[in-house]
Design a protein that fits this description.
Layout: E1 2-5, H1 13-24, E2 28-30, H2 31-41, H3 44-54, H4 61-72, E3 81-84, H5 90-97, H6 117-142
Parallel strand pairs: 1-3, 2-3
Helix pairs in contact: 2-3, 4-5
């Protein structure tokens, strides 16, 4: 099962995701945790991200997308995963949906891979909601305080 927890910082995504991930026996993948670990361990991704973080800037989508792509390719994600804090931007969501990150199948409602009528209907409904959420996402992106 592939799940995505969305919400503003401090909403409790990480708290809930840890418990749900453990219950479902899928890895809880937090981009924030991954970035902090990469910076601490001095990995190539961490070194790229460090200058942005230290400068109070957002880490560019390309770096996060590559980092998530690498993480989702690990064996423990074969049976699913729970994303916490990703996607946060439209570019990240498009990358995830187009399966540029997840080579197995595009993410969709309920974690069900495929393109049957029920899945398409659910996905179309979610995209309709996303269309209304984009102005809110952009509003909050412009007001992030480092």
């Amino acid at each position: 099962m592939k799940l995505i927890f969305l919400g503003p910082p401090g909403a409790g995504k990480g708290t809930q995701a840890a418990g749900v991930g453990a219950h479902l026996k899928v890895p809880h993948i937090s981009t924030g945790d991954m970035l902090r670990a990469a910076i601490k361990n001095g990995t190539p991704t961490g070194l790229k991200a460090k200058s942005y973080v230290e400068g109070g800037q957002l880490v560019p989508d390309a770096i996060l997308i590559d980092m998530v792509r690498e993480r989702l390719a690990m064996p423990d994600c074969e049976n699913g995963y729970l994303l916490d804090g990703f996607p946060r931007t439209v570019e990240q969501a498009v990358a995830l949906d187009k399966a540029r990150i997840d080579g197995a199948a595009p993410a969709n409602a309920g974690g069900v891979a495929g393109n049957n009528t029920g899945t398409r209907s659910t996905r179309d409904s979610l995209y309709g909601e996303l269309k209304h959420a984009i102005p809110s996402i952009e509003f909050h992106q412009l007001r992030i305080v480092p």
